[in-house]
Amino acid sequence: MKRGFTLIELLIVIAIIGVLSSIVLASLNNARSRARDTKRIMEFKQIQTALELFYNQYGQYPVTAGAPTWDEHWRFFSTCLETGVGCGIATPGFQPLMSKVPQDPHDDPATLSDSDPTYYYAWPAGCSDGRSYRLAVYLENNNFILQSDLDGSYYSNNNGCEDSNKGYCVGIGVCGGW
């Protein structure tokens, strides 16, 4: 009697391996997107701490320059926390609050467009007194943290902080336009 595998048996084994590998890859991608969301949430906590240190030292939060894209807004905000330049007020004796302000894991730092994900730092135009701010990001997955974050808008009634949009927002102050 011949020992070995028939062509059908080999094809079945290959098909089973293919199905199992696709399941593993799908699970891996899901784990990666959840890890990116966790990273975003943790980075916001670090940025909030830096903002509170800024407030304690200067009596207000940064009011950075506007820009045509949100990526540029974030760049101005990052420059403020890293160097003290462009914060909207004089920052004598500035000590860097963060050596490098984080970027969204999917943001392409080579572009300054709104076509890729970014972090958002904002305040409505009527609240540019440095007493309030919002940080916002869109998460990739539904997350329990969305039940305890700020809802509404991060800028000019855009509803970007709504849980249905997976918008995660944190901040200080209440202002018209949110």
Write the topology of this structure.
Blueprint (H helix, E strand, L loop, with lengths): L6 H52 L11 H14 L36 E3 L10 E6 L28 E6 L6
Antiparallel strand pairs: 1-2, 2-3
Describe the structure.
This protein has 178 residues and is mainly alpha-helical. It has one domain (35-172). 37% of the residues lie in helices and 8% in strands. The protein has 2 helices and 3 strands. The chain has helices at residues 7-58, 70-83; strands at 120-122, 133-138, 167-172. It is elongated and about 90 Å long. It starts with 6 loop residues before the first helix and ends in a 6-residue tail after the last strand.
Tags for this model:
3 strands; 178 residues; 8% strand; 2 helices; mainly alpha; elongated; three-stranded antiparallel sheet
Summarize this entry quickly.
The chain is mainly alpha-helical and 178 residues long.
| Percent range of helical residues | 25-40%
Number of beta-strand segments: 3
Principal-axis shape: elongated
Mean pLDDT, all residues? 85
Terminal CA distance: 79 Å
Rounded radius of gyration (Å): 23 Å
Q: Tell me the fraction of residues in β-strands, as a range.
A: 5-15%
Strand order of the largest sheet: 1-2-3
Largest beta-sheet characterization? 3 strands, antiparallel
Structural classification: mainly alpha
Number of helices: 2
How many domains make up the 3D coordinates?
1
Uncertain runs with pLDDT below 50, 5 residues or more?
none
Elements, N to C (H/E): HHEEE
